[in-house]
Design goal:
By secondary structure, the protein is of the alpha+beta class. The chain has three domains: about 190 residues, Histidine kinase-like ATPase, C-terminal domain (Heat Shock Protein 90); about 110 residues, Ribosomal Protein S5, domain 2; about 220 residues, MutL, C-terminal domain, dimerisation subdomain (formyl-coa transferase, domain 3), CATH 3.30.1540.20. About 35% of the residues lie in helices and about 20% in strands.
Length: about 575
C-alpha cells in the first residue's frame, strides 16, 4: 500500500482511541470540563453502564454560541495560548481533544448557554459529522449527551468489560471527584436510580460518610502537611481499617486524579511494619504544588504525571501519613514472654500435662503396636509411604498441640505436620459451604437484621451479586441508597459478624468476566471463608484444635486453602532422621 494521508474520520477515531477507552473515560473528560467551567452543581446520568447513554449537565459558565461548533473540533481549547502554558497548567483540561474524540465515536449532543446570551445553543454531532447549530431556551450551563458509544466502531465494544465492571468504573470515578471537590454538588444516576448525591457544603468528612458510611468516616485519620511550597491534606485509615487491594488509595495532584506508582509506594511505606502482608489502607490525599513542579502532559488521558523532584514528594507523602497514623494509633509494645504466658494461661495446659499427653492416635485404626512407640512404627513404614500424598488425601493425624498461637503440630504415620490454622479453617469452611449449596442450603436467621452502608461503586457491585449470595445461604436485600440489610447467614457462619462477612464480599471484588454462576459463587465463597476463618495469633483450646484437625481430614483438598496457599508443611520421618544425623544422605 502506498504512503497516503489518512482521512479526517480515521484520524479522529485513532485519536479517540487514546482518550476514550471506556464509558468512564467519557465521564471523566466531561466532568473535568464542567469543573473547569466553575460549576457548583453537576449531574451525571448513565444507562446500560454508559454504553447507551452518558449525560453530564452543569451550571457552569457555558460556551458562547459562536464557539460551539469550534468546541467539537480537534485541538480547539480555551485553556492554552502558547507552548509555554504547558509548563504552568492550572486547569484539568488543556489538550482540546476530549469533545472531538467523544463525538467521533458516538452520537453527541451539546447544549449550552452563557450568562450574557438570552437563548441557548444546540449542536448534534453523529460519528464526527456535525449538524446545524440550533437556538432554543436553556438555563445557564452546559449539557453533553453521549448516545450509543462506539456504535460506529463496533470492534471497540468487544473490548469492554461486563456492565457491572463498567458501571463500577464510572461510580468509582465520580466518587473520587466528589471527595476532591466537596464544594460541588454531585448527583449520579444509574438507570434511573440515584446512587450518589452530595450536598456541596465543602465538608469532605461528610462526603466520606455518604460514600463509606458514618462509622468508616469517623475512623478516618486526618492528614495535614505544609512545608511552605506544597501541601498535603486528606484522610487515611487507622490500622484496624484496611483493604485487600490498592484500589482505595487515591491521589489528587492540583485537583487532578492521577495514578502514580511512586505515590502508591510512598503510602505503603508509611504503613511499613504496621499492617499484615497483603493489607492496604484506605487513603484520599490531595497534594497541591506549583504547576511548574509537575508535568501533566505525559499521557493522552492525563492520568499520569511526572514530578521535577519526585524524591521530595515521595518523602513528604510518607512522613505526612506516617505521622498521622502514629499520632492517632500508637503501637503498644508487648513483651514476648507476656504473650506466651497469656497463650499458656488461655489454653490451660501446663508443661507437665503437655509432656504427658496420650501417645495413642485419636481415631480407631491409628498406628500403635504392642511394645513399640508410634514414632518407631512410623519410621519403619517411612520407606513404603511417599513423601507427598495425593492432594485429596490425608492420613489419620494425632494432635500434639499449638505453637505461636498460629500453627497446629500433628503426627502422622509418615512424619510431622505443621498446619496453618487460618488456611486450614478456610478450606474447611469453603468445602462445607459449597457442599451445602449443592444439597440444601441451611440458613441461620439473625435475631436483629444488620444494616451495612457501602460506597456507591461497592453497592452497585454487590447488587449484581445478590443472586449468587442468596444461593450460598445469605439473605441480603437492598435497603435504600447504598445501604443493604443482612437478614440471614449460612449456618456455617452463624458465629461470625454479618457486616464483616458482607464487606469481605465487596472489598476486593475484581474485574471478573466469568459467565458461569457457579464460578461467581465459588469466588464469593472463598472471600467470605477467608474473612470468617480463625486468624493467626488466636489461641485455641485443645478441643478446638482437635475438631479442626478432624474436619481438615474430611476435606477433598485438605492441602491448600481455596486461594491456593498451602495449609500444611510435611516433614517426613526420613527427613527428620537425616537432619538429626541418624541416617546418611542418599
Amino acid at each position: 500500500m502506498p504512503i497516503h494521508i489518512l482521512s479526517d474520520a480515521v484520524a479522529s477515531q485513532i485519536a479517540a482511541g487514546e482518550v476514550v477507552e471506556r464509558p468512564a473515560s467519557v465521564v471523566k473528560e466531561l466532568l473535568e470540563n464542567s469543573l473547569d467551567a466553575g460549576a457548583s452543581k453537576i449531574t451525571i446520568l448513565i444507562q446500560q453502564a454508559g454504553k447507551q447513554l452518558i449525560e453530564v449537565s452543569d451550571n457552569g459558565t457555558g460556551i458562547p454560541a459562536g464557539e460551539v461548533s469550534l468546541a467539537v473540533t480537534r485541538h480547539a481549547t480555551s485553556k492554552l495560548a502558547s507552548a509555554a502554558d504547558l509548563f504552568a497548567i492550572r486547569t484539568l483540561g488543556f489538550r482540546g481533544e476530549a469533545l472531538a474524540s467523544i463525538a467521533s465515536v458516538s452520537r453527541s449532543t451539546l447544549t449550552t448557554r452563557t450568562q450574557t446570551e438570552e437563548t441557548g445553543s444546540r449542536l448534534v454531532v453523529d460519528g464526527g459529522d456535525g449538524g446545524r447549530l440550533e437556538h432554543l431556551a436553556y438555563p445557564i450551563g452546559t449539557t453533553v449527551r453521549v448516545e450509543n458509544l462506539f456504535s460506529n466502531v463496533p470492534a471497540r465494544l468487544k473490548f469492554l468489560k461486563t456492565d457491572a465492571t463498567e458501571r463500577q468504573q464510572v461510580h468509582s470515578l465520580v466518587t473520587r471527584y466528589a471527595l476532591a471537590y466537596a464544594r460541588v454538588q454531585f448527583t449520579l444516576m444509574d438507570d434511573g436510580k440515584t446512587v450518589l448525591q452530595t450536598s456541596g457544603r465543602g465538608d469532605r468528612r461528610e462526603v466520606l460518610a455518604s460514600l463509606y458510611g458514618v462509622d468508616t468516616a469517623r475512623q478516618m485519620l486526618e492528614v495535614v502537611f505544609d512545608d511552605g511550597e506544597f501541601t498535603i491534606e486528606g484522610f487515611t485509615s487507622p490500622l484496624a481499617l484496611t483493604r485487600s487491594n490498592r484500589r482505595e488509595m487515591t491521589f489528587f495532584i492540583n485537583g487532578r486524579w492521577v495514578q502514580d506508582t511512586a505515590l502508591n509506594a510512598a503510602l505503603v511505606q508509611a504503613y511499613s511494619g504496621l499492617l499484615m502482608v497483603g493489607r492496604f489502607p484506605i487513603s484520599v490525599l490531595f497534594i497541591q504544588l506549583p504547576p511548574e513542579e509537575v508535568d501533566v502532559n505525559v499521557h493522552p488521558a492525563k492520568a499520569e504525571v511526572r514530578f521535577c523532584n519526585s524524591d521530595r514528594v515521595f518523602s513528604a507523602v510518607q512522613r505526612a501519613v506516617r505521622r498521622a497514623v502514629m499520632a492517632y494509633s500508637p503501637i503498644p509494645a508487648i513483651p514476648p514472654q507476656k504473650l506466651w504466658g497469656t497463650a499458656a494461661a488461655q489454653t490451660g495446659v501446663t508443661s507437665s500435662q503437655a509432656a504427658g499427653l496420650d501417645w495413642q492416635f485419636a481415631h480407631e485404626g491409628g498406628i500403635s503396636g504392642e511394645g513399640q512407640s508410634p514414632i518407631s512404627q512410623a519410621a519403619q513404614q517411612a520407606a513404603s509411604i511417599p513423601d507427598s500424598l495425593p492432594a485429596g488425601s490425608l492420613p489419620l493425624l494425632r494432635l500434639i498441640g499449638q505453637i505461636g498461637a498460629t500453627y497446629l503440630v500433628a503426627e502422622g504415620p509418615d512424619g510431622l505436620y505443621l498446619i496453618d490454622q487460618h488456611a486450614a479453617h478456610e478450606r474447611v469452611l469453603f468445602e462445607k459451604l459449597m457442599e451445602q449449596r449443592s444439597t440444601e442450603v441451611i440458613m441461620q436467621p439473625l435475631l436483629q437484621p444488620v444494616t451495612v452502608q457501602l460506597a456507591s461503586h461497592q453497592a452497585a457491585s454487590l447488587a449484581d451479586s445478590l443472586d449468587a449470595l442468596n444461593s450460598l445461604g445469605f439473605l441480603v436485600e437492598e435497603f435504600g441508597g447504598n445501604a443493604f440489610r443482612v437478614r440471614a447467614l449460612p449456618a456455617v457462619f452463624s458465629s461470625s459478624d454479618p457486616e464483616t462477612l458482607l464487606r469481605a464480599v465487596i472489598e476486593d471484588i475484581e474485574e471478573d468476566e466469568s459467565p458461569m454462576q457457579t464460578e461467581i459463587e465459588a469466588r464469593i465463597a472463598s472471600r467470605v471463608c477467608k474473612r470468617a476463618a480463625i486468624k493467626g495469633g488466636t489461641v485455641m483450646a485443645q478441643e478446638e484444635q482437635l475438631a479442626l484437625l478432624r474436619d481438615l481430614e474430611k476435606c477433598q483438598s485438605p492441602r491448600t486453602c481455596p486461594h491456593g496457599r498451602p495449609t500444611m508443611i510435611h516433614l517426613s520421618v526420613d527427613l527428620l532422621e537425616r537432619q538429626f544425623g541418624r541416617r546418611g544422605s542418599r
